[in-house]
Design a protein that fits this description.
Length: 194
């Protein structure tokens, strides 16, 4: 399941609309932003893993406390959750300048105030992180980082040896699918990722 599809299921299917309401954001605009940002989050994570930083990706996904942000959009819009979401984004994109660049690009593309996007993006990331956590609890992440080691993980992510020497990362790679939609966010990520 892609991050976009995951987010569409948040809050019993009403999560994106509820999150938009937390920021006074038009629901259609929130959907537009999410359709740009969700694949960008997935692509950033996938690129990190392909660069041999699968431990960074898996580490960013850990934290069972975040699972509640997926079910409760109001909680995802709280300062603590937004700080967590920002940290999640920075670990995937490289730094705060990269997340600001992504917010600016999404703002321009969707015609939404950049300040609003800069608030919505970390909350959306917290919700996404919560959804990923529900799909892949800490115990499962710990199993991935043990045994086969990092090289096994990277090999699995890149479609390498599937002969059982490394952990099965099919769940992770499916979640990091960027929907294959040819989104312009892929190009944008190339400019901002550190």
């Amino acid at each position: 399941m892609s991050i976009m599809k995951l987010l569409e299921q948040a809050g019993g299917g009403q999560g994106l609309a509820q999150l938009a309401g937390q920021f006074g954001l038009d629901e259609v605009k929130a959907q537009q932003l999410t359709q740009m940002l969700a694949p960008a989050i997935g692509q950033a994570a996938k690129k990190r893993a392909e660069q041999g930083q699968a431990d960074t990706v898996l580490g960013a996904m850990k934290g069972e406390a975040q699972a509640g942000y997926f079910d409760n959009p109001a909680a995802a819009a709280q300062p603590e959750a937004m700080a967590q979401g920002q940290s999640f984004l920075e670990s995937l994109l490289g730094d705060s300048a990269a997340t600001e660049g992504l917010a600016a690009a999404a703002s321009e593309s969707a015609g939404v105030d950049q300040g609003l996007v800069a608030q919505f993006l970390p909350a959306l990331a917290a919700m996404a992180q919560g959804g990923l956590q529900k799909q892949m609890p800490d115990s499962q992440i710990d199993q991935m980082t043990g045994g086969g080691g990092l090289m096994g993980m990277v090999s699995g992510l890149l479609g390498g040896d599937k002969g059982g020497s490394g952990p099965d990362l099919s769940i992770l790679t499916n979640m990091l699918d960027a929907d294959g939609d040819g989104s312009a966010m892929d190009d944008i990520l190339g400019k901002f990722m550190k």
